[in-house]
Amino acid sequence: MRRHFVRKFVLFRALFVASVVTLAVLFGGFLWGGAGDGRPYGRIGIVLIALAIFLIISAGRRLASPLADVMEAADRVAAGDYETRVQERGSREVRRLGRAFNEMTERLGTNEARRRQLLADVAHELRTPVSVIRANLEAILDGLYPMDEAHLRSVLEETTVMSRLLDDLQTLSTAEAGALTLHREQMEPRQLIDTAVDSFTAQARDKGIRLEGRAGTLPEIEVDRLRIGEVLSNLLSNALRHTPRGGEVVVTAVAAEDGVEFSIADTGSGIAQGQLPHVFDRFSRASDSPGAGLGLAIAKSLVEAHGGDIRAESSEAGTTISFGLPR
């Protein structure tokens, strides 16, 4: 139906233009003399009119065909077929339309795949705490467990896990959508590092890991103190988790060309090369790693929200994650 509408629309425009050309040529022919008094201008005008109509209708059909293809493809995309593509043909403008349509469809397909994967991942992550909560409550109701502090605390801990997961997902989604509100203030990089290191000193000591912060005199940067603190906390937590007893984690900040470069280096076992390109993906984690695998994804989103960039390097000697922030 839409193809028929497009053809009728284009042909109508073509006939309209042809009518205008017809009147113009006839008017010119009559000015020079009509076919009835023997002058050739009228007959030439009629031939030109017929030729103009033929050319305009042909051009209209060539324009209608690719437009109709786009309309049909749009119907398929609206029905959920994100593999649909159109052939980029026709005039320059129509080719640009086809190219833009294909790029849009590809983005829609990618977003849909991410949405499905996100739902699957969230369902997977919530399955364990929900199962634990249900099992404990059923056991209490059946009289197998007493309703004491120990068993209720177990339920409470699992709800905390679920709450933390949902909070992390909200932060991640807000940052990726560009809707995160940043309360920027001028901060010295040394302050950010000292605060983060102080928060993890006790944990590092208990695990037998040497934790150190290094930052000289650096220019102030305009950041959201809490959000960058969250970035450093996520990276430090991840580094301490994968560093064995007797290892070392070092947090540094150095001046860069247009800002400050932070890095968190550990002496852990490193990240497998096949997994390295995906360390900042949602729910990406090693098979033996606890947690939901959102920490690095959140760090990446928060750094990018500040206009910075983040990257990871790893070897058997350990992993270094660096991120730059503009002044």
Description of the molecule:
This protein folds into three domains: 2-81; 117-176, Signal transduction histidine kinase, dimerisation/phosphotransfer (DHp) domain (Helix Hairpins), CATH 1.10.287; 184-326, Histidine kinase-like ATPase, C-terminal domain (Heat Shock Protein 90, 2-Layer Sandwich), CATH 3.30.565.10. With 327 residues, the chain is α+β, with helices and mostly antiparallel strands. Strand 6 (309-315) and strand 7 form a beta hairpin. Helix 1 packs antiparallel against helix 2 (41-78). Strands 2-4-5-7-6 form a five-stranded mixed beta sheet, covered by helices on one side. The chain has helices spanning 2-32, 41-78, 92-141, 149-176, 189-206, 225-241, 295-305; strands at residues 184-187, 210-215, 221-224, 248-255, 259-266, 309-315, 318-326.
Question: Helices and strands in order, then pairings?
Answer:
Layout: H1 2-32, H2 41-78, H3 92-141, H4 149-176, E1 184-187, H5 189-206, E2 210-215, E3 221-224, H6 225-241, E4 248-255, E5 259-266, H7 295-305, E6 309-315, E7 318-326
